[in-house]
Design a protein that fits this description.
heterodimer; A: 323 residues; alpha/beta; Rossmann fold; 7-stranded mixed sheet; 5-stranded mixed sheet; B: 336 residues; two-stranded antiparallel ribbon; 10 helices; 40% helix; binds thiamine diphosphate; binds magnesium ion
């Protein structure tokens, strides 16, 4: 099959959605820039014009609210935030407005909105340019949250997000942008709420989000050489969460390591861990281990970044501690 | 941008002692030389953290900070080096920070976008656009409650005036007549976008009027004009007359981030960049001071030598400093 990079897959998904549906438009900082959001929006302005590819002032709160409003009026906006860190300014529109609307008005009016938040970290960018905020948003009822880790899923989940009738937070990660993989040319979807088994195994389940799924696959390959047979689940959607897939795997392996490159406290790893012990406690043969960021802001110095951001070696250590 | 190329006149020197003029020249030169050096160090991959260079805007930080007292507070942005140096921050500690060393002003945790020097009145710089504007309002509020005569300065770019919090801050400061000066450094761009693509009325100073606050647009490349305007605004603020918005017209020579010139990307024209480089704030001051015999060639050489030595010493200090210990990553989340 044809190979595309993760960034190209996003680009193609955006293009195809905009061609397919006139109500889809792109709005946010840097969507006309050659570098601001990587190469993910290259060529869109030329093809669709500035009415549908809207680069904006530095006004996250107002612009996100405008996207919510446009969704209320029947459009399917994709509002882009070049970094999740800047989304805090838009928190109110996302949490109080977009996420609550459908429920609060008795299911009368829905918000078909895609919010694209980009994780961009490393390179000594420090605390305000490194954040992975999936847990904060997953906490909010009424908001779906997806995190693709492969080019195939980057396109498929983007299309699902745009076609969904609810607000969906689509989180892509710049550490994955150059990663190449099979991507069909046609329009296809990856269902929101379904995880996927990347590597089948019987000794331990490694459940990972986003970039950590990539690290988990590397870890599994190294573990295999040492005779440890790890199953890797790329959970892909944080909300809704594919509980059935998680339970099925843990029932088989009895051991669980969760890798999520975000803060540990009240994070996705904590959530998955709680679900497993609540529901299938009897299947567990060892304590559940979490591979996360320490509960500190991101430091600048490379020396500190090196210990701050978890990698495959950290997953391997966690696995070995319960095998 | 005619108002940014008027010659510096003797009129503007009125009341400024020669030693202060020399200090102004030295500060501008220091910022320029530090930034040029950093550009070089980034190219050589000695410095890794993203640096937003201040080259071309030196007159704004220098003019404003020279008019302030040590105890007055200044808040900075992602483009922080100029404000830090002008307010009297140590170049050694800044360089060590950029090198990611534990001796840096933020112990290597902040990098270029988060430098601080509390002892000289710089509580910090934030990389969230407009993030420090309300913080400066807050320190002004504290000063007014304490009645200690302190003044706050919020430095921010034209891009920050796209954010709602800018307007909220202006309104509250005006309402409470707080001792704060809002310094907008209008360098015409926010990353890749010209101000005309972001605001229909790009005259930022006029936004003060709706809050019944004085708003003035000045030549941000004329350091003496900045100094005089800032001095008046600061005096008003100290005397309980409330805030002022100063829009300083200026230009960043290099790209948004990093050392490149950013002329080949179709974002801005070569002519535009050349016009501004021609109106170099440092060159304009230097030529004026030499012409008026306020600065002699030998004094100029002496200042340049002194600045150069300070920078070389700072780089040596940074390079010889240790990196933070790995355990440092867990420290200082809370004050115990
Ligand atoms: C809330 C937020 N949104 C977006 C950004 C990305 N960003 C960093 S600097 C910048 C440009 C700001 O322009 P301006 O305020 O004019 O400052 P300048 O870079 O020109 O000095 C932008 C948009 C950010 N850091 N914070
Ligand atoms: Mg600007």
């Amino acid at each position: 099959m044809r190979k595309l990079s993760y960034a190209q897959a996003i680009n193609e998904g955006l293009k195809q959605m905009m061609r397919e549906d006139k109500s889809v438009f792109l709005i946010g900082q840097g969507v006309t820039s050659p570098w601001y959001v990587g190469t993910t929006t290259v060529g869109l302005l030329d093809e669709f014009g500035d009415e549908r590819v809207i680069d904006t002032p530095v006004s996250e709160n107002g612009i996100t609210g405008a996207a919510v409003g446009a969704a209320l009026a029947g459009m399917r906006p994709i509002v882009t935030h070049p970094r999740m860190d800047f989304m805090y300014y838009a928190m109110d529109q996302i949490a109080n407005h977009a996420a609550n609307w459908y429920y609060m008005f008795g299911g009368k009016i829905n918000v078909p909105l895609t919010i694209r938040g980009i994780i961009n970290r490393g390179g000594e960018q420090a605390a305000q340019h490194s954040q992975a905020l999936q847990a904060i948003f997953t906490h909010i009822p009424g908001l779906k949250v997806v995190m693709p880790s492969t080019p195939y899923d980057a396109k498929g989940l983007l299309i699902s997000s745009v076609q969904d009738d609810n607000p969906v937070l689509y989180i892509d990660d710049r550490w994955l942008y150059e990663l190449k993989g099979d991507v069909p040319e046609e329009i296809y979807t990856v269902p929101i709420g379904r995880g996927v088994v990347r590597e089948a195994g019987k000794d331990v389940t490694i459940l990972a989000t986003s970039y950590m799924a990539y690290e988990a696959t590397k870890a599994a390959a190294r573990l295999k050489k040492e005779g440890i047979d790890a199953e890797v689940i790329d959970i892909r959607s944080l909300k809704p969460l594919d509980e059935a897939l998680i339970f099925e795997s843990v029932r088989k392996t009895g051991k669980l390591v969760i890798a999520d490159a975000a803060w540990k406290t009240c994070g996705m790893a904590a959530e998955v861990s709680a679900l497993v012990s609540e529901n299938i406690f009897e299947c567990l043969k060892a304590p559940i281990k979490r591979v996360c960021l320490p509960d500190t802001p991101a430091p600048a110095s490379s020396v500190l970044e090196e210990v701050y951001f978890p990698k495959d070696k950290d997953i391997i250590l966690a696995v070995k501690s319960i095998i | 941008m005619k108002q940014c190329s008027n010659p510096i006149t003797m009129e503007l020197v009125k009341g400024i002692p020669t030693t202060v003029l020399w200090k102004i020249y030295m500060t501008m030169l220091k910022i320029r030389m530090v930034e040029e050096k950093i550009a070089d160090l980034i190219t050589r991959k000695e410095i890794i953290c993203p640096c937003h260079l201040y080259i071309g805007q030196e007159a704004v930080a220098t003019g404003v900070c020279t008019a302030l007292e040590n105890n007055d507070y200044v808040f900075s942005t992602h483009r922080s080096h100029g404000h830090y140096i002008a307010k009297g921050g140590s170049i050694k500690l800044m360089m060590a920070e950029l090198y990611g060393r534990v001796t840096g002003c933020s112990r290597g945790r902040g990098g270029s976008m988060h430098i601080t020097s509390p002892l000289v009145g710089l509580p910090g710089s934030s990389a969230i656009v407009a993030g420090t504007i309300p913080l400066a309002v807050g320190t002004a509020l504290a000063f007014s409650i304490k009645k200690n005569g302190g003044v706050s300065v919020a430095f921010f770019g034209d891009g920050a005036t796209d954010e709602g919090v800018f307007y909220e801050s202006l309104n509250f400061a005006a309402l409470k007549k707080l001792p704060i000066i809002f310094i907008c450094e209008n360098n015409l761009y926010s990353t890749h976008m010209h101000i005309s693509a972001r605001q229909l009325n790009g005259n930022i100073y006029k936004k003060a009027q709706i809050f019944k606050m004085p708003g003035i647009q000045i030549d941000g490349n004329n350091v003496l004009e900045v100094f005089q305007a800032a001095s008046e605004a600061i005096e008003d603020a100290r005397n309980g007359k409330g805030p002022t918005l100063l829009e300083c017209m200026t230009y960043r020579w290099r790209g948004h981030v990093g050392p490149n010139w950013d002329i080949d990307k179709g974002l801005r024209s070569k002519e535009e960049v050349e016009w501004w480089v021609d109106n170099c704030p440092l060159k304009r001051l230097e030529e004026f001071l030499l012409k008026e015999n306020i600065l002699s060639e030998s004094k100029k050489k002496q200042i340049s030598k002194q600045v150069n030595e300070e920078i070389e010493e700072a780089i040596e200090f940074a390079k010889e400093s240790p990196f933070p210990d790995k355990s440092e990553v867990l420290n200082d989340v809370f004050k115990s």
